[in-house]
Amino acid sequence: MKVAFFSTKSYDRQSFDHYLPESSHDFTYFEPKLDHNTVALAKGFDAICTFVNDHLDEKTLKKLSKLGVNTIVLRCAGYNQVDLKTAAELGFKICRVPAYSPEAVAEHALALLMTLSRKTHKAYNRVRENNYSLEGLSGFNINGKTAGVIGTGAIGRAFCKIMLGMGCKVLAYDPYENEELTSLGVEYLALEELLASSDIISLHCPLTPDTFHLISQKTLAQMKDGVIIINTSRGALIETKAVIKALKSKKVGNLGIDVYEQEEDLFFQNRSEEILQDETIARLMTFTNVLITGHQAFLTNEALAQIATTTLENLDELEAGKKLTNEVVWKEE
Ligand code: NAI
């Protein structure tokens, strides 16, 4: 298939170029993000390949359909960026990469947590400046804490196991209980109970209308004082303004985020020469107990290899008209 690849970064190109010679597909890499302005680049292609911040809204999908392109391969797990209803009405076929490396994301959640718990981000800078003072570097043990995991799919499961290995009591909330986890000692609770009992809360559920602003003024009030919140899932799970208030009042003791509500116009670019216009992230950056990374939890060699191979397999199945292993289908709520 002739595939137009949007939002290309050097690491995408490297991993896909490694596997393309063994496949029958032909890729053209475009740097721009897909939206209704850039969709014309897809003209003459059989399929498009997109990532988390490409816009697959109604306007873009309709234009894409007019160009005769009705196949989309998402090189990510989440699909909240796709207007699935419109896509279904227009007859699009969509596939994704459901689990490229759950461990990559779970390990990044741990990295955020441990950087905050031991202030290694501060220590790194101090030592480089020949400053070996330990003042202000007191941390806390993860061992013995209660970790609440919201969403125990592939990534949440991997994170639960890491937390069990760290010697934590692990609580979980998910509409579907996982038997393997319960056999390992993870305790499923109602959301309110998890919020009230956890020292650490890590978000691993998808962004849906149900989970939008799951962390809000109301749910923050139900948490322990000084709670640590980690979000490697999707930015809009957290109402950022509410969490800023909670950081100011010390209700939230630490916040580690790899995703941000307004990341779409910010992340995945070098903006170091620009004036930061986003007042909310600017405020977040002023807290010494907040750690932000720019949606990099997935970025390991192993995950990139899996993304490339699964995407190519998805294209093989689409081209052959086979049953689609990783199809994304619209379900009426
Ligand atoms: P998954 O589909 O395997 O698991 C999601 C789990 O969330 C399921 O068990 C589901 O039952 C549960 N869930 C659904 N609604 C829920 C709710 N209202 N409350 C609690 N649990 C709920 O997905 P996976 O692979 O574990 O990924 C989780 C999320 O991580 C993705 O949706 C994506 O947003 C994010 N992600 C972030 C990456 C990054 O680089 N930062 C990379 C990959 C995924």
TrEMBL record:
InterPro entries linked: D-isomer_2_OHA_DH_cat_dom, D-isomer_DH_CS, D-isomer_DH_CS1, D-isomer_DH_NAD-bd, D-LDH-like, NAD(P)-bd_dom_sf
Pfam families: 2-Hacid_dh (PF00389), 2-Hacid_dh_C (PF02826)
Residue ranges constituting the D-isomer specific 2-hydroxyacid dehydrogenase catalytic domain according to the UniProt record: 4-328
The keyword NAD is assigned to this record: yes
Domain D-isomer specific 2-hydroxyacid dehydrogenase NAD-binding: 110-297
SUPFAM superfamilies assigned to the protein according to its UniProt record, in alphabetical order: Formate/glycerate dehydrogenase catalytic domain-like, NAD(P)-binding Rossmann-fold domains
Keywords: NAD, Oxidoreductase
Signal peptide (from-to): none
Molecular function via GO: D-lactate dehydrogenase (NAD+) activity; NAD binding
Family: Belongs to the D-isomer specific 2-hydroxyacid dehydrogenase family.
Name of the featured protein: D-lactate dehydrogenase
